[in-house]
TrEMBL record:
Transmembrane segments: none annotated. The lineage of its organism: Bacteria, Bacillati, Actinomycetota, Actinomycetes, Kitasatosporales. Belongs to the zinc-containing alcohol dehydrogenase family. Residues 23-143 form the Alcohol dehydrogenase-like N-terminal domain. It holds the Pfam family ADH_N. Residues 181-300 form the Alcohol dehydrogenase-like C-terminal domain. Its cofactor is Zn(2+). This is L-idonate 5-dehydrogenase.
Amino acid sequence: MRAVVVHGPKDVRVDVRPCPVPGEGEVLLAMEWGGICGSDVAYWKHGASGTAALRHPLVLGHEVAGRIAAVGAGAGGLETGQPATVHPAEPVGDGRLPDRIAGRTNLCPEVRYFGSAAFDPHTDGGFSEYRVVRADRIRPLPEGVSTEHGALAEPLAVAMHAVHRAGDLRGRTVLVNGAGPIGSLVVAAAKYGGAAAVIAADLSAPSLAVARAMGADETVDIAAGEVLPTDVEVAFEASGAPAALGPVLRSTARGGTIVQVGNLPGAAVSAALGDLVTREITWIGSYRFVEEIDDALRAMREGLDVSPLITHRFPLAAAHEALSVAADPASGSSKVLLRLGGGE
């Protein structure tokens, strides 16, 4: 089978590897679609994503969907031919957490994630024609949800987790700063969660166009000199840019809430944070998701349309070109998909 493998900075190859065989409690998934994430781009550009550095070649990809090709012993309830996506997180150990964070499995001290070099050996991702997956990580797609859209259940789950962290949004005005793929999905998740108005802000006009298509009621083009609104009740900071923190804090109403969903740098940065104190703003972190992938699939079944997010599609053999487009701000891309199999 073919797989998209990063060997080091700017060194991604389509390698041929043996087709895996499912063991007990596992299924073989014939992959059809994969979405390129910022971490995939980071491994390709820098040989690292955050503090996770490549030590060995790594199969990229954690936003994937396909069809079950074979079912191992003990993987009951799943059938060959079923369309499915994957919950890409596998907590290591007994899974016990302190009572104060019980159930928040995304905060386990060690979690193996598809397409991650955080641990050695690395955890290969799903940008391959086939991938063996633990049966408990399989999420069958609801009727009416294609495998193309199913590949976006993982990033939508990230957005829905951020929205859950904010609390009840019904009837509230929301700002989403940063209209990349996650930010635009936060727009959709906030509207799905009952927000009265969602304002999206970004430096990129094409990104703002995607945000509008995903449900934003208003947009703010920062590059054109437009300014953020004032007194928003809830803000989602989805850019991960330290320079954005000051303006977003100032935009948030006194006593309001900011959910930090954009990954911030691990090194020291300069940011204007005074309003956090004087405006008594609650600043909440949001990391990956727990089981919101089920909520994401339910929302898609109920009509949440992720298609405006998809701007480019490439065959598996063109993985290098796909990564280049995803990494280039001038390309106007939002979500770039790889066609991994299923009649390519």
